[in-house]
Each structure stands twice: as C-alpha cells, then as structure tokens.
Design brief:
It contains 15 helices and 14 strands. It has 409 residues and is an alpha/beta fold. It folds into two domains: 28-57 and 308-408, Aspartate Aminotransferase, domain 1 (Alpha-Beta Complex); 69-305, 3-Layer(aba) Sandwich (Aspartate Aminotransferase, domain 2), CATH 3.40.640. The strands form three sheets. It has a seven-stranded mixed β-sheet with strand order 4-10-9-8-7-5-6, with helices on both faces. The protein has a four-stranded mixed β-sheet with strand order 1-2-3-12. A three-stranded antiparallel β-sheet has the order 11-14-13, with helices on one face. Helix 4 packs parallel to helix 12, helix 5 packs parallel to helix 6 and helix 13 packs parallel to helix 15 (392-408). The longest helix is centred in the C-terminal third of the chain and has 23 residues, at 308-330. The termini are far apart. 45% of the residues are buried.
C-alpha cells in the first residue's frame, strides 16, 4: 500500500521540529575504544573524526564497569554456555538461573524482600506504575520527573493526578492533602537523582509526608522512586538516594545500564508487590528478559560494588567529581553543586549551549547540550557526567578546554 500521503505528513512534521530546533539530529557513531593508558582514561573514536580520541563526559557508566575485563569475561562465559539470547519470555521458558541469582542479589544489596528484572529502566517504570494504578488511584509527581514517569502517568489513567514544584516539599504536602477523597490509593512518584541537574529528591522528607497522610487513603500512600542515576553511583556504599537521605521508600526502581555498565532495569519491593507485578505487568510478561550473559555481567558488577574494591571505586569517583565541580567554579561557570557525578554547566541560552558543545567536540571532549524542550527555557545547560575511569589528567584537560573557551569567547 502506498504511503505517499503519510510520508508527506511526517515530512512536514519533521520540518516543523527542525524549524523549532527541537530535533535530536544525526546520532554520533562510536567506531572504537582505546583502553586506559598511562595518565589517560579510555578514549573513544567517532565516525568521521579519523584517529582523534575523545574523552567521554556524556556517559552514564559512572563506575566504569563496562570496560572492566572481569565484567566482560563474566558476560562472555555465560554467552558461550547459554547462548546469545534467552529465546522466550520468562513465563514460557526464558527464565535462567542467572536471572534468579541477580534478582536475589539486588534485593539483598538494597535491603528488600524481592526484586524483579525488566528489559530496561524506562520499561520498569511503566511496568510498575501502570499495573499499580487503578481507576481509584491518585498519582502525585515531581514536575521534573523523567519522561518514563510522565509517559507512565499518561498510560495509567488514574482517578486524579497532581504535579508539585520540583523538590518543594511544602507544595508536595499541599498537593497530597488536596488529593484526599479523590481515590483509595495514592502513588507518590519521584526520581531519586534528577538526571538533567544531578540534584537529589529529599526522600527523608518525602517519606515522612507520605506516612503522615497514609491513613487518609483507604489503600495507603505508596512512595515510588526511580533512582536509576543514583543506585551504584550515590551514597557511601553506592546504594543510592535512599542511603544518602537515610530513609527507605516503598518501591525502588533502578537500572543495570548506568552505574553497573550493562543493560536492563529492575524494581525492588515487598515480595507481595513483586509477585503481583510478575502477574500483571505486560512490559514484563510479554517481553524477553535481558540475556543470560547480561545478567551474569551485571551480577559481577554488583558484586564488585558490594566489596572493599567498590568502596575504592566510589572514593575515586567522588574525588574526580569534586575536582571537576571545583574547576568549573574556579573558572566562574555556574553549576548545581552536589556529590552526584552529574555536573551541569548552566549556560541558560540555546545558541551559546550549541556553540560550547561544538567547541568541546572540536577539542576532543564529549558533553551533552540540553536545550528546550528537554529542559525548561532558561535552564539550558551542558550536562557533564564524571565516571570512575576518568583520571585526574582527563579532568585537568577538560577544565583546560573550558578555560580556553572562556578566554576566547
């Protein structure tokens, strides 16, 4: 069947996005990786850039696990033993021993009764929020929550929903109080670490407010936190925003694709909640799991973090994060201070953001330019992400490039 008219309509829509400056554009293609050498961390090679190596300051692999030989060996060993893919969804024949072991390890690491793997963290949020939302459920969400939470709320069709000002616990309490009587169950949803800014939700205060109004809802006030950028990279032992805030939420969502350097998402909660989600979450039931090799590699990554070596990795990550943040401040750049390795450089102007990203790329540094509508107007920034395989020499080089830019522009 001809798609001429559809192509025309979609082409017009694309032209409109380009005119607004909101298209993502052509994706950068990585063609090779050079392992750490001497004072340098890993260098990445980009299609069309020849043999020029780049410092990757735009990756979520906060612990540097994806390039570790022991993690790679765990993945390769499992692939040779069990094959490249699971071959089926889990309830048919796609559950392997590695999946079960990893779920038990994650539950233990994060002090929960049970854990459940999904194919990605984005899918995990959908696979948790949608099944737990009934026609008599109220959803309450931070205004800067990740797109996966926003889309989950749209799919859920709750009885009511309320959006509170970012990290404003007074406004959150007011919104929750206004929701009384609108539903039997209230689901309070927040990011743990807000990925565009690197700041964390005040989970201790959020949990306290949830408990305060729990009795006002027949089925309670349930706290759900997506800490994909926090777990593994935040907190004294890498347990994320809960550890940093010294509290515990009801349902915790995380990822294996950021700090742990592999792929997949997960949720940890009570055994009853996890069992219910296994029976009701279509994103889990009808989708293949992560591969056995991915599960094995992730298991190795979690074991490394949950060891004395993991503490040393976190210590180095914290040191490099502080070094980079202090370097920005010393040069007079605006940033949002905090211990998380997402370090934003606030530009607050779209053309200037694009200009600085181009300058960095020309000088061998990869950073992420974030413009409206990804971030609100006036919050345009370059998001830098420090990783544990960055060296002091790497950080000095990036700061040097930013210093040269400031002196010449």
């Amino acid at each position: 069947m001809p798609v001429t008219n559809l192509n025309s309509a979609l082409g017009q829509a694309l032209d409109e996005l380009k005119a607004k400056g909101t298209t993502k554009g052509k994706e950068m293609v990585i063609t090779g990786v050079k392992r750490p050498e001497g004072k340098n961390g890993p260098r990445y090679f980009i299609e069309g850039k020849g043999d020029k190596g780049f410092i990757k300051m735009n990756a979520n692999s906060y612990l540097g696990m994806s390039l570790r030989e022991d993690v790679i060996e765990a993945e390769e060993k499992a692939a040779k033993e069990f094959g490249a893919g699971p071959g089926a969804v889990r309830f048919i024949s796609g559950t392997y021993e590695s999946h079960i072991k990893l779920e038990k390890k994650l539950a233990s690491f994060l002090n929960r009764e049970a854990a459940m793997l999904f194919s990605s963290a984005y899918v995990t949020s959908m696979g948790v929020i949608v099944p737990l939302t009934t026609s008599e459920t109220v959803l309450v969400s931070d205004e800067l929550n990740h797109n996966c939470i926003i889309q989950s709320m749209r799919l859920s069709r709750p009885a009511a929903k309320a959006i509170y000002k970012h990290n404003d616990m007074a406004d959150f309490e007011a919104k929750l109080k206004e929701s009384i009587g609108k539903g039997k169950r209230a689901l309070v949803v927040s990011d743990g670490i807000f990925s565009m800014r690197g700041d964390n939700a005040p989970l201790d205060k959020l949990v306290e407010i949830c408990k305060k109004y729990d009795s006002q809802f027949e089925e309670g006030v349930i706290s759900i936190v997506d800490d994909s950028h926090g777990i593994g990279a935040f907190g004294k032992t890498g347990k994320g925003s809960e550890e940093y805030c010294n509290t515990k939420v009801d349902i915790l969502i995380g990822t294996l694709g950021k700090a742990f350097g592999i792929n997949g998402g997960f949720v940890v909660a009570s055994s009853t909640i996890v069992e219910y989600l296994r029976e009701t979450a279509p994103m889990y039931i009808y989708s293949n799991p992560i591969t056995v090799s991915e599960a094995s590699a992730a298991m190795k990554a979690v074991e490394i973090l949950d060891s004395p070596e993991g503490l040393k990795i976190l210590e180095h990550l914290g040191k490099m994060t502080r070094k980079f943040e202090n370097g920005l401040k010393d040069l007079g750049y605006e940033t949002i201070e905090g211990p998380h390795p997402v370090v934003p450089l606030m530009v607050r102007d779209t053309p200037k953001t694009s200009e600085l990203v181009k300058y960095l790329t020309e000088h061998g540094v990869l950073g992420t330019g974030l413009n409206f509508p990804v971030v609100p107007k006036g919050d345009e920034e370059i998001r830098f992400q420090v990783c544990a395989d960055h060296t002091e020499s790497d950080i000095d080089y990036v700061i040097g490039v930013l210093k040269e830019y400031k002196e010449t522009h």
